[in-house]
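To the structural biology subgroup,

Please find below the input and predicted structure for 3-isopropylmalate dehydratase large subunit, which we are adding to the shared reference set this quarter. The sequence is reproduced verbatim from the submission form. If anyone notices a discrepancy with their own records, reply to this email rather than editing the shared folder directly, so we keep one authoritative version.
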Amino acid sequence: MGKTIAEKIFDAHKVESPEEGIFVLNLDRVFCHEITTPIAINDLVSRGKDRVFDPEKIKAVIDHVTPAKDSKTAEQGKIMRDWAARQGIKDFFDIGQNGVCHAIFPEKGFVRPGYTVIMGDSHTCTHGAFGAFAAGVGTTDLEVGILKGVCSFKTPESIRINVSGSLKQGVYAKDVILYIIGKIGVNGATNKVIEFTGPVIDRFSMEERMTICNMAVEAGGTCGICTPDMTTVNYLWKFIEDDFDSKEAALKDYSQWASDSDAHYSDVIELDVTDLEPVATFGYKPDQIKTIAEMEKTPVDQIYIGSCTNGRIEDLRVAAEVLRGKKVSPNVRAVLSPATPDIYKEALKEGLIEIFMDAGVCLTNPTCGACLGMSNGVLADGEVCASTTNRNFNGRMGKGGTVHLMSPASAAATAINGYITNSALYKG
Ligand SMILES: CC(C)[C@H](C(=O)O)[C@@H](O)C(=O)O
Ligand code: SF4
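Predicted structure (tokenized):
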């Protein structure tokens, strides 16, 4: 019987299997941010175990609320800052260099095919876009990971979702993943790895693959995973060129992280997205999906472009294309948080920031901020936001607020009209 990518990664990292179906794995990366890591740090300190397994393999960032907005968030930042200095963690991104964890860590080349990655954050699944096994974990696992560089997992059962066809104008990776979650439901992949395959995924850029893998957890998935290919090699090339003689050699090496044709999946789902229309969520669960056409004219108070799902340069390019020469409706507040400083700089260089500012969009520094209703665009009771983020839970962006998840193109078009709008209206 052949093996899936996840099974191959497990085999290569297995330390032991203390009982049937449980694997203790060596970790290549432990990622940290200031919301969950300080709890682990404080506990380690109180137990006299203020150590890290390998400062090179730990990468840390202050991203959720930055600059600090109050004493609590200032304290969280301080704990991270002091810990990174004390433990010699060189890859620590603090104010001025910081961005959303799942955008900045891939951008720095920290994730490679075949890696095992954990973080105390549910959207760690994003990094599976590189053909890595990347999972969000709780504080206890994070603590063990920081101290010993291992983590235990159940046998990785995989679901394969094969996406074929071609996307219509105005339909993006975000629409595809929302559609998939709408199909399989918020528990459709609970405790499973979702392996995304097929010609549509093959044509996707790394950014688009990250958007897809990012939301695997919204269907209950432990991890999303894509097969590494030349797109992966091209993205990583500047970080790996000293390790390989050529891109072909890198690809050959990374090809070991591909599922065998006779690998076992708990389910295989075939989806043709040729007829897919732009979609958005309604209600408070990410599997509540309607087409933008069905939602058209739903009024919004705010639009938000940003987050680890859709705050990358390609997202900003698409939004700017829609907003070029247009104005944000006077009834709407438009907030945009580029996900990292490099994305911000690139957007500035390409003239996108000017387009946004001319349209009346408020730009914030790179941060999670409004995505989880912590800062920079919190909703008031009863307000509605069209957002490029990944969670529409009740009150997510502010108590009593409602979130409609959608693509950056749809959010930008919605900003112009003040109600949910298909971006195709504004093309060309
Ligand atoms: C703060 C953090 C624990 C949380 C998560 O795990 O996802 C956050 O990033 C979110 O998106 O709600
Ligand atoms: S951008 Fe949003 S979803 Fe992503 S890590 Fe930050 S808070 Fe979580």
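Summary notes: Residues 35-36, 64, 121-123, 136, 372 surround 3-isopropylmalic acid (ligand 1) (CB under 6 Å). Residues 12 and 154 are 15 Å apart (CA to CA).

Regards,
Lab coordination
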